[in-house]
Design brief:
- The structure is a single chain.
- By secondary structure, the chain is of the alpha/beta class.
- Helices cover 41% and strands 13% of the residues.
- It has 19 helices and 13 strands.
- The protein has an eight-stranded parallel beta barrel, surrounded by four helices.
- Strand 5 and strand 6 form a beta hairpin.
- Helix 2 packs across helix 4.
- The longest helix has 19 residues.
């Protein structure tokens, strides 16, 4: 598709959105350097999109509840953490006061504690002032070998437990979680088709306990196509996909290009809910060269804002989820969408060029979802990948000990590694048990990547020729 048709498809010449009003911590892992933190955060300019099936006016910025802030557990062992409920309450209050009204959680998020923490925070506000999204995350149950009626009963129990934890008697947006992963169609059939759960969910929507029904997609595109083929029966109200300016045409692993996914939804007038707009944080801060190019165009805006503007530019996008652990991220994203400035032709072309540069980097496509955790051997898998990717972006991963930048890069990598990941949780302790691999929605060969990074670390420690 040429650039002109790409812009036409996005509908940039049309009115994309209507506006409406609704009535200290560790340092951030996503850089907002170069932005003015004192800039106004509007309370009455949030961009909203309408859900066709229910007429909900949904904020374009959605709150992803996978990364709630943590604190040390005063009653636990050293190093154990729990959700900081006071911090969650403050973030939720601030979000609602600034027009954010969509909150996305799931039973396994934050080691199974997200729904409860989200419910405590939201229940302090009128029920009609926010929309709750949660999921039937029965892939965890199916992995244990559950099938048929046993899996059906456990899944229905999960559904009812979600309502209890969220302190509600209905769910605004309910999803079949993580469709397409594991073995693709056989796993989907085991979870939802053979159990009869699809019929159960349709009845729950008919009864009003589910207001909008959809699914979240990762992995085998045959599953995505199959579920869309059921649209005449299921009448999907929305679908959650991974969309950002890299994955739009350059998806890696088992992920499929979002250009195809979005187009298929748009053909059927099904709103898209967007996850991973920052690709696990990698689009929040790029290399110095790429950062400088974006800063030249928008000096006051964060690097992350470009990714959020990209996802929000698509007119069939209902909301864009962001796991905002820190208030500064929440503030920055509110500024980006209050109101949204859709990207123009030239800006879209620049981001496509940025994506083409980025796919040449040897980064690990980790989105820090933590589905691989906890590791039975205590390894901090997301932390290791995050440090490695950060060093790539900053130019501190070197290919040879003869590089002019070698000494600086070596020090930055090793010192930063020890600071961000305790030694007992580093990649050297991986025994390749493979327990993490089936859980990764990005289909990363986690043990292989950990071993590759450990070889690189050992090369730096020894000062020897680089081994990867």
């Amino acid at each position: 598709m040429n650039r002109r048709n790409f812009i036409k498809k996005l509908g940039l010449g049309l009115s994309v959105t209507g506006l409406a009003a609704t009535g200290c911590k560790k340092s951030s892992s996503l850089s907002l350097s170069g932005t003015d933190s004192n800039r106004e955060v509007p309370t009455d300019k949030m961009t909203y999109r309408i859900t066709p099936s229910t007429g909900d006016k949904v904020s374009l910025l959605g709150y992803g509840c996978m990364r709630w802030p943590l604190m040390s557990d005063p009653n636990g062992k050293e190093g154990e953490e729990i959700i900081d409920q006071d911090a969650v309450n403050e973030l939720v209050d601030y979000a609602l006061a600034h027009g954010v009204n969509y909150f996305d959680t799931a039973p396994p998020y934050v080691r199974g504690k997200s729904e409860e923490a989200t419910g405590k925070a939201l229940s302090r506000h009128p029920r009609d002032s926010y929309y709750i999204a949660t999921k039937m995350s029965n892939h965890h149950l199916a992995r244990t070998g559950m099938k048929g009626k046993e899996l059906y009963d456990a899944s229905v129990e999960m559904y009812h437990n979600s309502m209890k934890k969220l302190q509600t008697d209905y769910i605004d947006y309910y999803l079949l979680h993580n469709c397409g992963g594991e073995t693709g169609m056989p796993f989907l059939e085991q979870r939802f088709i053979d159990t009869g759960l699809l019929d159960f969910l349709l009845k729950e929507r008919e009864a009003g306990r589910i207001r909008n029904l959809g699914f979240s997609y990762h992995g085998d595109v045959k599953v995505f196509d199959y579920l869309l083929s059921l649209h005449d029966k299921m009448k999907w109200d929305f679908v959650q996909i991974q969309l950002n300016y890299v994955d739009y045409r350059h998806a890696s692993g088992m992920n499929f290009n979002a250009e195809y996914l979005y187009d298929e939804l748009a053909k059927r007038d099904i709103p898209a809910v967007i996850m991973e707009p920052l690709l696990g944080g990698r689009l929040a801060s790029l290399t110095d060269h790429l950062n400088a190019r974006l800063k030249e165009r928008e000096p006051e805006e964060s690097i992350a804002s470009w990714a959020f503007r990209f996802s929000g530019t698509f007119p069939k996008v209902l909301t864009v989820l962001s796991g905002m652990t820190y208030k500064e991220h929440l503030e920055d994203n509110i500024r980006t969408y209050a109101p949204l400035r859709p990207l123009n032709d030239e800006e879209l072309a620049m981001l496509e060029d940025t994506a083409q540069v980025m796919i040449g980097y040897p980064s690990v496509p980790c989105t820090t979802c933590e589905y691989c955790m906890p590791c039975p051997y205590g390894i901090n898998i997301p932390g290791i990948f995050a440090h490695y990717n950060k060093c790539i972006n900053e130019g501190n991963v070197t290919s040879s000990n003869k590089d002019p930048n070698y000494t600086k890069a070596r020090k930055a990598f090793l010192v930063g590694y020890d600071r961000s990941v305790p030694k007992l949780r580093q990649a050297s302790h991986c025994i390749a048990c493979d327990q993490c691999k089936p859980h990764c929605p990005q289909s990363i060969d986690i043990p292989r990547q950990l071993q590759r990074i450990d070889r690189y670390v050992e090369s730096l420690k020894q000062g020897s020729e680089i081994t990867v």
